[in-house]
Amino acid sequence: MAKPTPDYFTRLAALAAIDDPASRPAKPVLEAFSATEMATVPVGTAADLELAVERARQAQSAWAGRTPSERAKVVGKFSDLVHSRADELMDIAQAETGKARIYAQEEVLDVALTARYYATYAPKLLAERKVPGMIPGATDVRVRYQPKGVVGVISPWNYPLTLAVSDAVAALMAGNAVVIKPDSNTPYCALALAELLYEAGLPRELFAVVPGPGSVVGQAIAETCDYLMFTGSSATGSTLAQQAGKRLIGFSAELGGKNPLIITADADIDNAVEGAARACFSNSGQLCISIERIYVDASIAAEFSQKFADFVENMKLNAAYDLTADMGSLASADQMTAIETHVEDAVAKGATVLAGGRKRADLGPYFYAPTVLTDVTDEMECCRNETFGPLVSIYPVDSVDEAITRANDTEYGLNASVFAGTTAQAQQIAEKLRAGTVNINEGYAAAWGSTAAPMGGMGISGLGRRHGEEGLLKYTEPQTIAAQRFIGLDGMTGVPRDLFRKVTPLAIRGLKYLPGR
Q1: Is the dihedral of CA 171, 416, 333, 362 positive or negative?
Q2: b/e per residue, 367-383, with b = 16+ CB within 10 A?
Q3: What is the phi/psi pair of residue 446, to 5°?
Q4: Handedness of CA 312, 315, 318, 323 (dihedral sign)
Q5: Can 288 be counted among the known catalytic residues?
Q6: pLDDT, tens digit (0-9, with 9 covering 90-100), for 454-498
Q7: Count of alpha carbons within 13 angstroms of residue 389, beta-carbon side
Q8: How many CA atoms lie within 13 Å of 485's alpha carbon, on the beta-carbon side?
Q9: Is residue 392 within 8 Å of 332, Cβ to Cβ?
């Protein structure tokens, strides 16, 4: 459990889908805890990406020719390898992002569980199925699922293991090839998982990692792939959606969020305090589904706020490659600037700091104390805009209806959380929230970790879904094959055409009386 060695980086760098990497410019990769260089990575070009797509396209037809069960053996073995190499994967995730090890562990487990889910269930979900035909007994209809071809993945820096591969394993199980551009600050997480995919038996051309700037490599992916998966900001997602629309290719995206948490008057306050802390400060708040707004019944707001602030002030922060920290570092100088800007703006306009609100330079260059604000108003930047850092605002409300109205008063709709006196009450509240996932008595993990259920956003929080059946079949082209026998719209043998045309409407109308129609 330590920062990876130079030999480890050298081994992984050789896996980048770049010919003659030694001749290319090298980008420094920093350890987030210290902001010091720990390795370099070769910088790919548009030509590298285009060549990777060409090679992927050539290899994809043979992969698609394998049965889903055969593909599942590779993905299942990959899941096992992720478990067995968990420590080295957690090391590289911590090194590149600065996250606490508990959240690196969360990532590793998510990758393994998602791969296992698709290895187990995808063969059945992809199986040819028979559906009712136009004329019972005379129309045989079957639906098949063909792969898209080459799926492009543009993955972010905040969860560089999960978001590099969890979408990719679904695409691979569906028979596609994958070409990925990881974020330039976290390329080695994607390469570490590529190594395990290859070790599991996946041909290298089917999962090609091309490091490089988004303006070059990301643009080339958008211009060449057959389907594009993106995780990142709503603004960039909108741009990529337009590009995909011009090419008439499929596009899916998980984008930003300004996620609310509702606490009712009869909720268990101590349980809500601990749940809210995890919901707000997992991965230092750098999580699309983390909570940034808390709506708490006014009758318990003072008690909750005090207990929550005390809990947050006592959270343990450090740069250790072990499980002792409750929260780690921010990932970069840009993230530090973003959180400082939001906090300073809010305080200058009258917000009250209950906890945090300061840098922790004593721990490292990108450490910022988990921060709790009250008295936040609309003119403050953090009120409606996503912070994407360890900052949450508490808003007292007079009723559950007010909490629901205010929770829904946003362009976003990614995730939400409810803590209530009973599960039944929380369920009723959840059904009124405009969010792709709603967690009860938990901030985000219950929905995110349930890999059989779809996960994604409403509003400007995204398009499409990952996980579950939806997260698999989006990478396919459904094909309907219908065979007509005995009788058709032109008539049937032995029946005069005029009579056939007269009775056809009556016969079609009568189909509703048949079982299953």
Answers
A1: negative
A2: bbbbbbbbbbeeebbbb
A3: -60, -45
A4: negative
A5: yes
A6: 999 999 999 999 999 999 999 999 999 999 987 877 777 778 887
A7: 30
A8: 8
A9: no
> What is the greatest pairwise CA distance in the chain?
93
**pLDDT given for residue 124 in this prediction:** 98
Interatomic CA distance for residues 335 and 332, integer angstroms? 5
Report the pLDDT averaged over residues 257-278.
Answer: 98
How many CB atoms neighbour CB 65 within 10 A?
Answer: 9
Does the pLDDT value for residue 517 go beyond 70? no
Is 339 strand, coil or helix? helix
Q: How far is CA 149 from CA 56, 214, 225, 436, in A?
A: 9, 22, 8, 28
The angle that helices 269-281 and 298-313 make with each other, rounded to 10 degrees, is 60
- Give me the sign of the Cα torsion angle 152, 155, 160, 161: negative
Residue 145 · residue 474 · CB < 8 Å: no
Q: How many CA atoms lie within 13 A of 122 on its CB side?
A: 33
Number of H helices and E strands in the chain, helices first, is 18, 20
Six token digits for residue 259:
């996620």
At 82, which amino acid appears?
V
Say whether 254 is catalytic.
yes
Of the candidates 96, 106, 205, 254, the residue annotated as catalytic is 254
> For residue 359, what are the β-bridge partners?
368
Distance CA 457, CA 465 (A): 8
Amino acid occupying residue 28: P
Give the number of residues written for the chain. Answer: 517
Instruction: Give the tokens for residue 1.
Output: 């459990």
DSSP code for 217? I
- What percent of the chain has pLDDT above 70? 100
Task: Please state at what angle helix 86-97 crosses helix 68-84, rounded to 10 degrees.
Answer: 70
Cα→Cα distances 126→34, 122, 310, 359, Å? 46, 6, 51, 50
Calculate the alpha carbon distances from 158 to 94, 242, 313, 336 in Å: 11, 24, 24, 14
Q: Taking a C-beta distance cutoff of 8 angstroms, is the pair 50, 220 a contact?
A: yes
Spatial CA neighbour of 400 closest among 432, 440, 438, 436: 432
Q: Return the structure tokens found at 423.
A: 């599960």
Q: What pTM, to 2 d.p., does this model score?
A: 0.95
- Catalytic residue of the set 189, 225, 288, 383: 288
